[in-house]
What does this fold into?
Amino acid sequence: MSMKETFERLKDRGEGALISYIMGGDPRPDLTPKIAEALIEGGVDILELGIPFSDPIADGPTIQAANLRALKSGTTPVRVLEIANQIKGYHNIPVVILTYYNIIFRIGLENFFDKAKKSKVDGIIVPDLPVEEAQDYKFIANKHGIDTIFLASPSTSIVRLKKIIEYTSGFLYIVSLFGVTGARKTLKRSTIRLIEKIIPYIKGKTPLAVGFGISQPYQVRSIIEAGADGAIVGSAFVEIIQKNEYDEDNMLNSIRNYANELKKATILEGE
Amino acid sequence: MKEFTKYPIDGKYGKYGGRFMPETLMSAVLDLEKAYLKLKNDQVFKKELDYYLSEYAGRPTSLYFAKNLSKKVGGAKIYLKREDLLHGGAHKINNTLGQALMAKKMRKNRVIAETGAGQHGVATAMACAVLGLKAEIYMGKEDIERQKLNVFRMNLLGAEVHPVGSGSKTLKDAINEALRDWVANVKTTYYLIGSVVGPHPYPMIVRDFQSVIGKEIKSQIMEKENRLPDALIACVGGGSNAMGTFYPFLDDHNVKLYGVEAGGHGIESGAHAASLCAGDEGILHGMLTYLLQDEHGQISTTHSISAGLDYPGVGPEHSFLKTMDRAKYVSMTDDKAVKAFIELSKTEGIIPALEPSHSLAYAIELAENMKKDDLIVVTLSGRGDKDVQVVADYLK
Ligand SMILES: Cc1ncc(COP(=O)(O)O)c(C=O)c1O
It folds into this structure.
């Protein structure tokens, strides 16, 4: 199913999308497809898969550590794309690759998108690539029919927001707060206000999903109630992986159960 | 050429530079650019900066003819631009005074900075102390080990030092951590970057503030020799003292420009920090530039005896000057740097920092093969008090 269909189908059912983020190759490349399967069984609608980078400036300690574990286990960018392909072979859900721009630049834009296309990747997120630097990237992604997901943040001006909405496809990624990734226990009122501020500009164009700091079911519910089409949860899953690094069964069970709890929070009707 | 890079459109020097930043920081770098363009031509700001540079930091610094060294080498005349005489002991204060004044004008009372050798941290702490700003400095744990004296100095000057334990625990990781702090606190915090690196407008701002070095060299050498030098030599970590030295001479095509990178144990060994000599293009810390990285784009850990040169990237304008063939970049090993460190101490009674000891090492090689009345200017970017322990350990 394409990203567009996924969001449309969920909308019809009165649900928000649960989008999970894990690092490819964390703690080992052979475990990633199993973790993905547990997430999907738990109810995840869209899967984000990270390609590890040595210098992840937008990430807090939890995901920094995941980058390191993945690099230690020998995970290369091409390996993560192969994992994506493997997952797509079994599961009919959108898979999005998240990585820093040097990884893509190093492989070369054409080459990277060729490989991503062959691996049936649906979209790409690059947290250190603002629209100002994204012309070639966007052009080549379009040519390959791969979505480019751009980010908007609390500091984004309306002028920039309009440009970002033009560039983004698949969905718009709203950064919920000033800061790096990492689970937070609370949800700031400003996050809700940010969603409400952005909605009028994007309604009817592209779905919007909110990430950074989202780890609890009640946060997911509040975001969806505020009108977001999806909630992105990363560090909470990565923490489960980290805690159970040497206990595969417990890791997969915990992931499946937690995904299930979060998924329930995206369902607004019929409660 | 100077006109072309004076105000780089979209922060691009040729294809290098740019603003590869998380969206949360984009408005901050755009605001910074606006603020700088306004202040740059503000007479009050200029006057204030000039005041601090001369009365507080000790500008102008002398252009000293190293007679004994020149005689011993037996080639060109070697002049030293004495940035080691500045307050704090390095060229870093030229930039920190300028940017700290900007922070004040922009009403950001909290200043964060990264530091490698600790020299930029110390210079930031000084500028913040004198201007009444709060300074917090990120420093890799490994650098804290090898530059303990500077950690103590920063604390004395009222700055808080945050040890960075991620990655290679050196300068690159300190920049990562400073950027993470900035993302979280961008509304109240000024990020005072220490070299001609990072997203636009930083490489331009730091170059402009450091260009006082090259401007003074130009008028001083005219006064002493009544002509421009044949060669300028400066060490390149991020590249700020080199850019400041080179920039006023970019259009003087008879003046050869040499940037000296850290050769560590030698380029072949892989243990070095010579991004321009041995790296490839890539994107780190907001800029497209030459980087040391592996085949997959993971940034390499670097090695240099001098913490201030131990960085896997380089300022984008240097990448541009290299590609345009306007400047030549070479590398000198730890060994040669230490030899030059000792040589200058003995011949001239000047203990240089290990960073410009790399430039001196190259100057000695270059001067040998030049004519007696040829002129070389070496930017002595800092003094070596901070390095005596490191050198003593190295010689053991
Ligand atoms: C004395 C001295 N020279 C040079 C450098 C390298 O920096 P840059 O290349 O920006 O001049 C440093 C950095 O700490 C330094 O302390």
About this structure: The pocket of pyridoxal-5'-phosphate is lined by residues B 90, 116-117, 119-120, 195, 235-242, 308-309, 353, 355-356, 381-382 (CB under 6 Å). The radius of gyration of chain B is 19 Å. Chain B touches chain A at residues 10, 18-28, 166-167, 172-173, 176, 179-180, 183-187, 281-286, 288, 291, 293, 295-299 (CB under 8 Å).
